[in-house]
């Protein structure tokens, strides 16, 4: 048998599992159709022609669907095929007088398909409708009605359908949990810093639980406490907000080593679990948890401890539309345990990189002092000596004084610049707002090249300082390329977020002459450092640079 391979980045695990489920469902459908058709053909009392035609048509359609599933073809109606199967089964039972137990199995096949595709809700709905369809079909024949048997079989369909739907829901839940754990183990883009990593993990956790907000409170008595809140529409990087010990105290009133589940509407007492000690769920005091719920503005929340190397705290996930279950609280603890080592590693790398940058800045400041400032100091001393040798009535005296003052001014400016280079923090670039920085850049391009730049920046798009600075530098380099290497006097810059990707388009709208083929090396290097890629599109005299950066 031949072997096959595929890059692990090409297809997600969830997509591969969906395709495998569709193949299993298609094979079961074909087996049931063939079995029903062959059973009807070999029966002593054969059914009528309409039923035989419908069985043949169903078998042929099942074969076609199996071929499409084996070819990994995506059909627009594929996710709702179980309702079509239920309709087929209903028609089989109401055509002719052919009686076979295979038609009874069709109902469970419909429930299985619905549960595998959509989970418990769709599977339970399919079970109820299948039971109703079975009762209607059996009561259609008033001559052979056996009410006790119909009741038992209806209950059997509902009970077994409930179990199948629960198994489908657990399978989908397991896949989603594995997907979240895998995402937490691989930070979105560690090059963007620890703040972006923590925000991304909190947003993924909030999306998984379909929660209103995710709140993280961490700190220590020596370093103080900080609060992060991630909710719908939050920026890509949420910086920590320093809070006092009194403000952090309500979130830390529950025992540090326990997992907490609180549901205001369904139970009066919150529950706590101690996974490390393998104890059962225990009740906690209501008032502290109710106060936390009021602060979170919710009726239900789950919480897990956060234990870092030098800090500790708790994470809270809250929602009001649906109460949490015990399994949700325990899984949150597992997810936090998976994410903490990644956060600490990214923080360590970020600290190492920051220290290396600071050392490099110190070296550059010293080199600037030795190679640029010292010669100017020597020039100033020479001018001073020359001024002393000149007679008081020398006509060059004023010029020498002016030149000496100019040299002293340059020395002061160089010293200020060297000091700013040595003191500047890599994590705090001057452009804190991407949109305003790009607007200033557009003004500079108009003054320098006479080029009109039209900006199209997505509304409410807030980037972290580090990523915003990189975006501004990429756009600056692209516009400089347009101004230096083309005759275009119109530029278009588009920046937007989609599918966890940051897209940057830099277009020269109307160049006067065809532009030679080129590769923006500096832009490509910046994008590569951030894990992105660059593509260049050329059409006659227009050129577009496309930059994509994963976030």
From TrEMBL:
Signal peptide: none annotated. The keyword Aminoacyl-tRNA synthetase does not apply. It holds the Pfam family HisKA_3. Keywords: ATP-binding, Kinase, Membrane, Nucleotide-binding, Phosphoprotein, Transferase, Transmembrane, Transmembrane helix, Two-component regulatory system. The chain crosses the membrane at residues 28-45, 51-68, 149-168. It catalyses: ATP + protein L-histidine = ADP + protein N-phospho-L-histidine. It comes from the Bacteria. GO terms for molecular function: kinase activity. InterPro entries: HATPase_C_sf (IPR036890), Sensor_HK_TwoCompSys (IPR050482), Sig_transdc_His_kin_sub3_dim/P (IPR011712). Residues 360-420 form the Signal transduction histidine kinase subgroup 3 dimerisation and phosphoacceptor domain. Its EC number is 2.7.13.3. Coiled coil: none annotated. It is an enzyme of class 2 (transferase). PANTHER family: NITRATE/NITRITE SENSOR PROTEIN NARX-RELATED (PTHR24421), NITRATE_NITRITE SENSOR PROTEIN NARQ (PTHR24421:SF10). This is histidine kinase. It comes from Massilia terrae.
